[in-house]
């Protein structure tokens, strides 16, 4: 059995290595530039949650600030930071499985986690995502939770509480993982061990995690502003791009088609083997898998990176069950476990499809802004974008936006909402005060599904009127069959280079 596991380890290691090598050139895209730009603005005189208006939680900003100061703002630096997170995730798996000699379960689990995080068509979007770092923290926390029981060291559970608290300040859905103490409590009572010290250290760690973030907000003088902003923006954001449970249910199985087979086979093996059913490690990992799925469904958007906590714990749990069965059980159970392990490992390379990303729009936009001498005018550019790369360009050019609104997530909603109107009015007031020379509007439709591209302007007539009165559409690129992502550049009417766009729609391309 050792030889077989060693061969499979080499096979998976090579496959994972190829996947990671193909991803080393990946740029930072999608949500990550929003967080990185918020940190950049905070370093250039703007105050978090007071001047910088965004829904991101402070744990994410602290993490991005740490990366920026340790490794720098480059794409490669963040890719290395991401790989460090994978190393932490793998180490946590090894700690969880080492006591039973199930080291191959860690190899199998991390291989498929890397496949979900890096090897699928959406992998590039997962780079730097909050759910990934949340998962890394929770994996380490679960490892220390189990170690606290096996070593009978209550102090170690403090770090589990700390990890759940810190993960919850990245995304609040992580707080459901505090329920992982339930199997531990039952096991302690079964052994008639005292609970008080375990619960005391757990609460101390949980409180310490929130205290760290509270201290960070105090340092930024942003406690009140954070609470007020979250009260305003979170209810609005929660309703955007929202999908029902039945709509997003298929998405949790979408990219990795071995998941149903592994789930059914592993559940069957647990049901048939009392020794596995009664094992604390198996119970904790299974519950963590369920809570990872709960985190996905609670966000009710179905985005690929929301699955990361579920995939991390599912593949570790399934591998734990299969390897334990293959090493210890009767022949019939052993052959089922080995068949699932061999089948999944064999098709791994066929499942890996590292993503690519066309950055033509970022290059074109940077060239346009350079031609317009935007680098000579800090504070005179305003992006209205979410994830189409406008902030990446500003980061590369070291440009500070005219307002603290770093994306237009809630501006182009196709419905009336008092909170949305408040945010719109505040943005327009800041825009009029700063009077930027350049406004960049991308054709990104999310979360406005009621219109295509720039037709979203119809849902915000006040902004459209401001553009028509004070700005001229000077440049429009992309948004066609060749380049889906596009943008418009509006110049203030008193700008010498402000000439109306004369190109016909069919010729508006790169």
UniProtKB/TrEMBL annotation:
Keyword Membrane: yes
Keywords recorded for this protein, A-Z: Membrane, Transmembrane, Transmembrane helix
Keyword presence, Ribosomal protein: no
Transmembrane segments: 76-96, 102-125, 155-186, 198-219, 310-327, 333-351
Descriptive protein name: Glycosyltransferase RgtA/B/C/D-like domain-containing protein
Organism field: Tunturiibacter lichenicola
